[in-house]
Amino acid sequence: MSDALRRVTPVVRLAPAKLNLTLAIVGRRGDGFHSLHSVMVPLGLADRLALAPAFAPSDRLHVTGDRVPDLGPADRNLVVRAIGAARAACRARGVDAQLPGLAARLEKRIPVAAGLGGGSSDAAAAVDGALAAWAVEDALAPADRATVAAGLGSDVPFFLAGGWALVEGRGERVEPLPTPRGPAPAVLLVTPGLAVSTAAVFLAYASGIRPGPGAALASSRHVAGELAAGMTAAKFAERAGILAVANDLALATAAVVPALVAFRRALGRLLGRPVGQSGSGPTLWVLYPSIGAAEAAATRVREALAADDLVAPGARPPFVAATRIIVGDAGISAEPSRPAETTAQGGT
Ligand code: C5P
Fold first, then answer.
1. At residue 341, what are phi and psi to the nearest 5 degrees?
2. What is the mean pLDDT of residues 68-95?
3. pLDDT tens for residues 37-53?
């Protein structure tokens, strides 16, 4: 076994999706990005990232999944960039040990370009996983990791921190929030089968397609304050109506995907509950007090779609899933690597 092989421990990370319970835009920064005030939460829905020796100097990525998306050239993919950024940061901090090339296998479960932060979560998992694979977890202080994360994308610091959080600035200021006390709330996700570019939505927002200032911010501050003070799950559930309209990007997303407006209304009528939009969309969400209730709603939506009682925009069928909002210890989590898988990767 070569020296490089001995230095890599195969690791597996679960990279959760996120939901923006609120998304207020508080201004535009000098660098062109927008300043946010957003309550963000991690979901049970997660991608799975396995890292193993690449048996080569460069890092590699292989993507699998039911709906394998075109994630572009490997060297521009966030996972590969994240591994490279972690390696460069270690070097800058004086790590002179070999940090061999990694072979990343990404099982995509989170819809892409959907407002669920999948790519950013994969990147955070890649940074965390690469440091563990090289056994250099202590090389980077939390502040160094946060800097690496912020350089990869606006949502990456949230995922690296883990847990419920109030996210501000461009996304680099992450203040942990306590989770509501009681049973974990659940959510129904409905993602129309079309990709929405975050940049395109922010561009529409910047061109003036936006609500009057302040409404989403007031709600976002209010809910963040309630969570910080300690909230029960029952009280949290009562906030569904406020949360569902607290998204300053919804108008801009509707300009990019006009059919989303009617679809959102129809979904609200079908389920008789407030429907929110996550991030820049097009994922729509509906809060439920339990995973069982969210699963029943998912069945209802699937049946309505099959019967053409509900018609979703997009060329592909929508992604419909019930998932828990993660409470307690959340974020990127280690999953013990399965021996069979390690063997398979070892043979590549
Ligand atoms: O950082 P990320 O790659 O997720 O951002 C995608 C695009 O969304 C950016 O290029 C920018 O146009 C826009 N954006 C923004 N303000 C933010 C986050 C993203 O304007 N806080």
1. -70, -40
2. 89
3. 999 999 999 999 999 99
Ligand 1 atom nearest residue 171's Cα: 21
Whether 3-176 shares its CATH topology with 186-346 is answered: no
59 a catalytic residue: no
Closest atom of ligand 1 to CA, residue 169: 21
- Ligand 1: does its nearest atom lie under 6 Å from the Cβ of 153? yes
pTM: 0.93
Q: How far is the CA of 154 from the centre of ligand 1 (A)?
A: 6
Residues 6+ apart with CB under 8 A from 42: 16, 17, 18, 159, 162, 163, 164, 325, 326, 330, 331
Domain 3-176, second-level architecture? 2-Layer Sandwich (3.30)
Residue with CA nearest ligand 1 atom 15:
33
Q: Torsion angle of alpha carbons 42, 155, 279, 41, nearest 10°?
A: 20
| pLDDT digits 0-9 by tens, 307-324 | 999 999 999 999 999 999
Token pair for residue 24?
């207020």
**Alpha carbon distance 41, 17 (integer Å):** 9
Q: How much distance in Å is there from the Cα of 303 to the middle of ligand 1?
A: 36
Specify whether domain 186-346 bears CATH 3.30.70.890. Answer: yes
CA dihedral 174, 178, 183, 185 (to 10 degrees): -30
Give me the residue spans of the domains in the chain: 3-176, 186-346
What's the gap in Å between 295 CA and the centre of ligand 1?
32
Q: Give the pLDDT confidence of 328-339 residue by residue, as tens digits.
A: 765 566 664 443
- Catalytic annotation, pick one of 18, 47, 59, 108: 18
